[in-house]
User: Fold these one by one.
Assistant:
Number 1:
Amino acid sequence: MSTEVVVPTLGESISEATLGQWLKQPGEAVAADEPIASLETDKVAVEVTAPVAGVMGAHIVSEGATVNVGAVIGSIEAGSGSPAAKPAAAAQAPAAVAPAADDAGDLTLSPSVRRLILEHGLDPTKIKGTGKDGRLTKDDVVAAVAAGTATAKVEAAPAAAPVAVTAAPASGRAEERVRMTRLRQTVAKRLKEAQNTAAMLTTFNDVDMTAVMEARTKYKDLFEKKHGVRLGFMGFFTKAVCMALKDIPAVNASIEGDEIVYRNYADISVAVSAPNGLVVPVIRDADDMSVAQIERTIGDFGKRAKDGSLTMDDMKGGTFTISNGGVFGSLMSTPIINPPQSAVLGLHRIEDRPVVRDGQVVVRPMMYLALSYDHRLIDGREAVTFLVAVKNAIEDPTRLLIDL
């Protein structure tokens, strides 16, 4: 008896996806509701689960193919199956031993993680995974390499040869062609659309982080004990942004046709790192949240981004975006608007710099802020006023308590 595996409903207005990876191979035992394939949509990765327990049947659709909602991509056959053919492969001639080890990684690693593993010649079984069901994420591999805890594979050199898409010539110069993920294609399209449509301009300021850093140092332990989440900087900036949006409503508005839509709520999009790139989930009604609620929501987004469990609803909407390039070491940038939003705030790294205070040169932890905005809707005066309001709230966090 055979049960069809179909592409599930992907969310409002999304009718197709790309089959990113098969997680189960034909002949392998499959449990009901176990992930068997990964789909890449315009916004997030979605797992396809087995409708019944049994044995993985034929793959009707190959990796990289575009599929529509409801399309049949494979089947589950009746039976108990087996853990693929790994044991048999390991018992073959010595030349087959190394590929068998690679197969084990191929069945559970995403393309980006597999590429990192191969680049560094690592043994994925020696790295602890923090993703869903213990699966390795890109961050796990990067962290292992940085910490020096990653273990290199012990195998014959020829075993690595099949990895290259194009064989390297004698000079050692090689090229690899990797198909763009649907997420990356969508990001490219939307960012170019923003450049072509909006009259984008960026204004800069810097902010003294002394007060926020002192408050964080003083209260972080009590905060984590009471709320069960770490006190970061994003909570302060999100509150400061929400307060400034109330004062300068044009920054929270958008253009729809020949109308301007003003909003009395703030749904803040925050950029978080995922294995396949940055994703931008939305903090709903952030203006009504406490710092603890904001930090808890962002922490949850970060965890779910790593294990691939963010949903379409998590990504929908958003009236303003905060992008923190500082976590990657960025000193200054000109962030691009996320349409149909009209502005985005870029945060950057904190570094000690000499500044003048009361006529004296002192060293302070400073951060550059960048506000990119649509000049069709937001005037320069409004943009600068907004950015100064954020700066003032961060340099004097008491303002956040008394809404000043």
Number 2:
Amino acid sequence: MAEVKVPTLGESITEATLGEWLKRPGDPVQADEPIASLETDKVSVEVPSPVAGVMGEQKVAVGDTVEVGALIATVEEGGAAAAKPAPTPAPAASPEPQPKVEEAAPATAGQQAPAGSVDAAALSPSVRRAVLEYGVDPATITGTGKDGRITKDDVVAAARKGGQSTPATQASSPAQEAAPVDSGRKEERVRMTRLRQTIAKRLKEAQNTAAMLTTFNDVDMSSVVEARTKYKDLFEKKHGVRLGFMGFFVKAACMALKDIPAVNASIEGEEIVYRDYADISVAVSAPQGLVVPVIRDADQLSVAEIEKTIGDFGRRAKSGELKMEEMKGGTFTISNGGVFGSLLSTPIINPPQSAVLGLHRIEDRPVVRDGQVVIRPMMYLALSYDHRLVDGREAVTFLVALKNAIEDPTRILIDL
């Protein structure tokens, strides 16, 4: 019998929360196959099986806090072959598999149980809820998560593809007419993940510690939109990545940070730490919450290298493969709420950084150019900053420098 213990999670991290079991007792497992997922303050970490065999006893429950080195499960070595025939008696009158299908049936009120065609235990709790809400058969979904696992986004996409834009309502059928009446008032209590708890703690800490203030400006995106439209095909052909807007903004921000070093600095005790480099944190949406990986030495990278790095972060954030060291040490953050349709916001600083830039959606608006009212693709910019370190004049100057670089991208090329 092999013991499965919590692996080393990274520098200064001593504990984690058991997010989900990927294997049940009696399931066959291969050596190094993930059997559990742990949630730390920053990322999810999968725990592999040390040997091939059969999943044994689970020592802890989902939601429990476990320390590094703690025993969480056992694996019976060499029992994989014996475990394979186990699923075959399912068609017979076995008392165990049957209740699982019957449990799921009422949730869809007359529809075929979505989880009936696959092992429901192999799906995470959030995915199982989404499957029931949208009435989607998981057997028809191609998973985009790690090792082909189905994510909540996969369920939503499958529902939309099938013509459902909202959680499935009961389809009219004879079986449904006999279903009990639903009062329509429901509540569900879900334990906060460790990542969500950490996000809440850090954001509140920022509000309590920093003297936060937000200043705004808008930027005419015409030149960047034109450049992107003109060169996006050639760019993708040469560099193997799509040309987006973030590459322009990261480069423009790096230039502005050199001009206004206080925005790239931080307060440590009674000292101000100024930096001659720019490690840009980029907020990325992941299934378990917002994560902020860091583009190291962004001021030394080309637009193509920045776009490749951001694209890689996005893919690995979705599959939960980001490493903890990739989310430490940023000096300035850029958060793009525009991809979700945000028009304006006041982003919160990511401590110990002194500022965060918020980008928003691009929309056509009437503006005055040379005495004429014209339509331009405009975007609002928001810079939240720690007023203990950054003065209002410096914040406004930073945004103006950024605006000038975006409205005239040639400035980025010649570092002006």
